[in-house]
Design goal:
Elements: H1 2-24, E1 54-61, E2 70-77, E3 82-86, H2 93-100, E4 108-113, E5 116-117, H3 123-128, E6 130-133, H4 144-149, H5 157-166, H6 170-174, H7 193-207, E7 211-215, H8 223-237, E8 241-245, E9 257-262, E10 265-270, H9 272-278, H10 281-295
Parallel strand pairs: 3-8, 3-9, 6-7, 7-8
Antiparallel strand pairs: 1-2, 1-4, 4-5, 9-10
Helix pairs in contact: 5-7, 7-8, 9-10
Bound molecules: adenosine-5'-triphosphate.
Residues 63, 69, 87, 89-95 line the site of adenosine-5'-triphosphate.
């Protein structure tokens, strides 16, 4: 009994710990990380939020001493503008997001938000001003309403409905058995990837942060879902400083700047037109995606898995 009980109990505790950590910290990028070396400096002040500009200044970082994952990265995201990170798997895109959220401290250089080094301000104040729409949203085992309201605890029902409408999920919610009171998550109604992402968008709209981090889903969605999600994402990013990890280059052709990351370095930068004109790495990624699109006969329907 003891042998059986211990691992089950351990698993339950561990699972709850990671789930809590995951959602509380909006730690969408690094589910399994439960410990942290990062702590607030004694007497650290709160972040004074201005218009939400972001700057990476000569940032180098490695998860361990043996290898640098980011090597001398510098870029700025002007208030209200959109910068996209693209590049092959393992290039360091998610790591950039984690450093901005201060899940880790940089080895060299600095990450600044509105001119303040993220190391010097409280983590709570930093994170409360950043909204995250992750690739895979984990929902609480609770109602749809609760899952959206998590973005702002004191939101009214009307605010929640407005956010859901702007996230293009309201009509869908009304088709659920108990509408906004429907239980979702592992023990409730299972939602599709596209639905969960729109719940995350509604939550972020309600949170109304100055800065938004988006991690675009890699999974294929059907054209309609894709269009709805793009429209909802557009509303989340509007007038907010946005950093997006893009997998489909078609979604970032209007980004103010695109940073092409490879092996921890920015190898190309510019807007879509600039980068095509450079006829380099980005241009070949673009060409590749056009060819893939033309050779894909049927798009999968990710909404159909309830
Ligand atoms: P993808 O598009 O596949 O998500 P990415 O560009 O976001 O890739 P990162 O997740 O930032 O890449 O990873 C960059 C490098 O850092 C990779 O080589 C990865 O193996 C390594 N790495 C990521 N997370 C950790 C970690 N927690 N500990 C050690 N190494 C890590």
């Amino acid at each position: 009994i003891v042998q059986l009980y211990v691992p089950l109990n351990w698993f339950g505790t561990y699972y709850r710990a990671i789930q809590k950590n995951f959602i509380d910290m909006e730690n969408m990028f690094d589910l399994m990380r439960v410990d942290s070396d990062v702590c607030d400096a004694p007497g650290a002040p709160d972040l004074l939020v201005g218009r939400g500009d972001i700057e990476f200044k000569h940032v180098s970082f490695g998860y361990g001493p043996e290898r640098l994952v980011l090597n001398n990265i510098s870029f700025k995201v002007a208030p209200g503008s959109t910068v996209a990170l693209v590049g092959p798997s393992g290039a360091g895109k998610s790591t950039v997001m984690r450093l901005l959220f201060r899940f880790y401290d940089v080895n060299e250089g600095a990450v600044l938000v509105d001119g303040q080094n993220v190391r010097t301000v409280t983590q709570a104040s930093l994170r409360s001003n950043i909204g995250v729409v992750p690739q895979d949203t984990v929902l609480f085992n609770n109602t749809v309403r609760y899952n959206i309201q998590y973005g702002r605890q004191n939101a009214t029902s009307a605010d929640i409905i407005t956010a859901a409408k702007n996230a293009d999920i309201h009509d869908r919610i009304l088709t659920f058995p108990d509408a906004y009171d429907t239980q979702v998550g592992e023990r409730g109604l299972r939602l599709s990837g596209g639905e969960k992402q729109r719940i995350a968008i509604a939550r972020t709209l309600l949170k109304d942060p100055t800065i938004v981090l988006l991690d675009e889903a890699t999974s294929a969605l059907d054209t309609n879902t894709e269009r709805n999600i793009q429209a909802a994402l557009g509303r989340v990013c509007a007038n907010r400083t946005t950093l997006i990890i893009a997998h489909r280059l078609s979604t970032i052709i209007h980004a103010d700047e695109i940073l092409v990351l490879k092996d921890g370095q920015i190898i190309e930068r510019g807007n879509h037109e600039d980068l095509l004109a450079q006829a380099g790495f980005y241009a070949s990624m673009w060409q590749q995606q056009l060819e893939n699109r033309n050779s894909t006969p049927n798009e999968t329907n990710a909404e159909g898995n309830n």
